[in-house]
Design goal:
The chain is α/β, with parallel strands linked by helices. It has helices at residues 3-8, 59-66, 89-94, 112-116, 131-145, 161-174, 191-206, 218-224, 247-256, and strands at 21-30, 33-43, 48-52, 74-79, 82-84, 97-100, 179-183, 210-214, 227-232, 235-241. Helix 5 (131-145) packs across helix 6 (161-174) and helix 6 packs parallel to helix 7 (191-206). The chain is globular and about 60 Å long. The model is unreliable at 1-16 (pLDDT under 50).
């Protein structure tokens, strides 16, 4: 079995292994509204964990807490067993947490290297833009994700959806992300581009990166995730291992807000 095949096989994370990131009893309020209500969630190295639920379930607010956009009102976040707090997104990025937003946050008029280093440009010793080095670095990191992606000097406006995703992911990897938050990465993509993104996720897992995947596509979740945390009305309905459940089981949890009658998690 290849390393890729090993990474795509569902595996239960060993209880003794320290998670890359662990959120415990996270609470986030906005006035009288409790958007996240005592939520536990974690991801291990080389694991993809789905965050599932209807719009408004609380999953986006939860990952914004993890990425430093919001500060929790209660609860703790630990990285590799050490408690941390993030006052702003830059703090989370410095700790190796990057978010791939559904909008991708790319500048359409810039090429791949321009977007990869946007706001963090590489400079020569004369303090001018080092375009040659940025192109070289961009080609190296993008090749890890999509070996067939050659036209990185095109404006991203002219790139396919899958290529745009590759640029956004490459930006996170270049700056040493160990934990990726991916928000609907396959939304509005065709079958071939969706396949490319899912294969990219498998490559990232093989490199030991931990991924939180927000998605409404059950087929994608079952293909790349080892576990999923289902949320509803700000709380956790349950955590399930994908090998132990069917898509109908998970949909029942999302819709009804409770686990199916049979036992799912030992």
């Amino acid at each position: 079995m290849t390393q890729m095949e090993q990474s795509s096989a569902t595996a239960v994370p060993p209880a003794s292994r320290t998670p890359l990131v662990e959120m415990r009893q996270i609470v986030k309020r906005f006035g009288g509204i409790v958007a996240v209500d005592h939520v536990d969630c974690e991801v291990h190295a080389g694991e993809c964990v789905g965050l599932l639920g209807h719009n408004g379930a609380g999953k986006t607010v939860l990952v914004k807490v993890l990425s430093g956009v919001y500060q929790p009102d209660e609860g703790t976040i630990t990285l590799n067993g050490q408690q941390v707090s993030f006052g702003m997104p830059r703090d989370a990025q410095a700790a190796g947490i990057e978010t791939i937003h559904q909008s991708l946050a790319l500048a359409d008029n810039l090429d791949g290297p321009g977007n990869l280093f946007l706001g963090r440009e590489l400079l020569t010793r004369w303090r001018t833009l080092d375009s040659r080095r940025m192109e070289y670095e961009a080609r190296n990191v993008i090749k890890r994700l999509n070996p067939n992606f050659k036209n990185i000097l095109d404006p991203v406006l002219r790139m396919s959806g899958g290529q745009r995703q590759s640029v956004a992911i490459a930006r996170a990897l270049y700056f040493n992300a160990r934990i990726l938050i991916m928000d609907e990465p396959c939304a509005a993509l065709g079958p071939a581009e969706t396949r490319m993104v899912l294969e990219t996720i498998k490559r990232l897992k093989a490199e030991g990166i931990g991924i939180f995947l927000i998605s409404h596509e059950m087929q994608d979740v079952f293909e790349v995730c080892e576990r999923a945390t289902v949320m509803k009305n700000g709380g956790v309905v349950g955590m399930v291992y994908m090998n132990d459940v069917t898509q109908d089981d998970v949909l029942q949890m999302i819709i009804q807000g409770k686990q199916p009658q049979r036992e799912l998690v030992q």
